[in-house]
Design brief:
By secondary structure, this protein is α+β, with helices and mostly antiparallel strands. It has one domain: Alpha-Beta Plaits, CATH 3.30.70.141. It is globular and about 50 Å long. The chain starts with a strand and ends in a 25-residue tail after the last helix. It binds adenosine-5'-diphosphate.
């Protein structure tokens, strides 16, 4: 199974959407392996958004991502990185498909409620960035045999 990072951004926390988002993640059959609320700062955002640090809108990203605590989640499943990325939808909520988190819950390209890791490699780095090893729990729900066929769970 893969593990991926979700951040429920201030635009989700401030709008009291976290329960709705967590519910959708669980109803899909993705497993929550770690979850906590934390206050981000510019230092961690410079690492997390290293590919955007030189963009003129980076200060605005820092402002919006530090406006309130966020909820960080490590979520596990077969092909979890791709599955959760597709559940999240494209960056701009106005262009995101209905049925995706961004498509259903936001109107913004910046205040787009959720971060989802984009590759398996980045997911590993990002989970390690936000969680200590002892904050990740290697458990599966009691009814996991109903989430997958017998030969799928080994992936
Ligand atoms: P994604 O979050 O879909 O992987 P990016 O990695 O390109 O997208 O961007 C990271 C985050 O930076 C976006 O989710 C969004 O909050 C913010 N962002 C991206 N592009 C812009 C922009 N042009 N103006 C303001 N904020 C942006």
């Amino acid at each position: 199974m893969e593990i991926t990072l979700a951040i429920l951004k201030p635009s989700a926390v401030e709008r009291c959407l976290i329960g709705e988002i967590i519910s959708r993640i669980q109803r899909k059959g993705l497993v929550i392996s770690g979850m906590k609320m934390m206050q981000l700062d510019e230092k961690i955002l410079r690492e997390h958004y290293a590919h955007l640090v030189d963009k003129p809108f980076f200060p605005s990203i820092v402002k919006s991502m530090t406006a309130s605590p966020v909820v960080v989640m490590a979520i596990r499943g077969v092909e979890a990185v791709r599955v959760f990325r597709e559940m999240t939808g494209v960056t701009n909520g106005r262009n995101a498909a209905p049925g995706t988190l961004r498509g259903d819950f936001c109107m913004s390209g910046q205040a787009n409620i959720v971060h989802a890791s984009d590759t398996v490699e980045n997911a590993k780095t990002e989970v390690d960035r936000f969680f200590r090893p002892d904050e990740i729990f290697d458990w599966l729900p009691a009814d996991v045999d109903y989430y997958y066929g017998p030969d799928e769970l080994d992936n």
